[in-house]
Design goal:
Elements lengths: L1 H11 L3 H14 L5 H17 L1 H21 L10 H19 L3 H22 L2 H12 L8 H6 L6 H28 L4 H6 L5 H17 L4 H27 L7 H9 L1 H18 L4 H8 L1
Helix pairs in contact: 1-9, 2-3, 2-4, 3-4, 3-5, 3-9, 4-5, 5-6, 5-9, 6-7, 6-9, 6-12, 9-12, 11-12, 12-14, 13-14
């Protein structure tokens, strides 16, 4: 798999024409197959990481032309008129610029989280009722999904969380896409870069304080936003929690079995896995668990 990914990344970086062709094909495919959006945005992000933000933006604008034409000629199913690529592409480009500048993954994660929180707040304030806004979107979107109904979302309580779940998913997709682009870059130019860099991911305490302050503010001013902001916060700190797991496992030399349990939890019980990792990540912002093994060694 590594060799396949390295060859694919090498194809993207072989020249501007090939980068445009690969990203355009993936972008067009993403109108009908959502995961392709991440690969398209990762290709653009790889160019931004390696060649700079200007090159990445130029490629993104160029790719937008064939994707728009394809969407006009062959409209996607209802609800996807605004391509996922439009949502995660700018986030990945902005995050890539921050990552390229200082090589730390914390600032890009905070950038993505801040934009997603701002989006949730904007939808609530502009629409006046985020649940009604998303209900209208769902009524349109379910037309393209056999057997799906808005009533199902209402009955299981998902509808009232949509304004937090969508930013959660968009933010998680954008950061995972950035990580994919960074991994490709590492495979091509510095094979030892990616793992240690992710293991060092740590957000400042001031970021945790800001999230808590924002939660308190919306609790008193706009209670409907409280759970939505909390969901985006869970997304942010779940990534730090994963970085803690990988960092501690690497420090102690446990091997891949050490980080397998949280991934299994994310697959089989994602709601509990994400919350558990977020709690770990938030606690690490205060305690910095990845220093503990070194401290114990010195004490011994």
């Amino acid at each position: 798999m590594r060799e396949v990914m390295r060859d694919f990344a090498g194809l993207i970086m072989r020249g501007e024409g090939l980068a445009f062709l690969v990203a355009s094909l993936l972008g067009a495919l993403s109108l009908y197959f959502l995961p392709a959006a991440s690969f398209c945005a990762a290709a653009i992000g790889l160019v931004g990481l390696r060649l700079g933000a200007v090159k990445g933006v130029v490629l993104a604008l160029a790719v937008a032309v064939p994707v728009t034409v394809c969407g006009y000629l062959f409209p996607p199913r209802p609800g996807l008129e605004l391509p996922l690529l439009v949502l995660i592409g700018p986030l990945v480009l902005g995050a890539a610029a921050l990552l390229r500048r200082d090589g730390r993954q914390g600032p890009p994660l905070l950038f993505i989280g801040a934009v997603c929180m701002a989006g949730a707040i904007a939808i609530e304030l502009i629409s006046g009722d985020a649940a009604a806004f998303w209900k209208g979107w769902l009524q349109h979107a379910v037309k393209g999904v056999k057997g799906a109904t808005v009533q199902g979302f209402e009955e299981n309580g998902t509808l009232v969380l949509m304004n937090g779940l969508i930013p959660f998913l968009v933010g998680a997709s954008a950061f995972l896409t950035l990580l994919l682009a960074r991994w490709w870059q590492s495979l091509l130019y510095n094979p030892e870069q990616f793992g240690p860099e992710f293991q060092r991911l740590r957000l400042p305490r001031t970021a945790l304080a800001a999230v808590v302050a924002l939660l308190l503010l919306v609790h008193f001013l706009r209670p409907a936003l409280e759970m939505h902001i909390l969901l985006v916060g869970i997304m942010i700190y779940a990534f730090q929690g994963l970085a803690v797991v990988h960092g501690v496992v690497a420090q102690r030399g446990i091997g891949w079995t050490g980080w397998l349990p949280p991934y299994l939890a994310l697959v089989f019980v994602p709601q509990f896995g994400a919350v558990g990792l977020a709690v770990l990540g938030a606690a690490d912002a205060l305690a910095n668990f990845r220093r503990l093994p070194a401290a114990e060694s010195r004490a011994a």
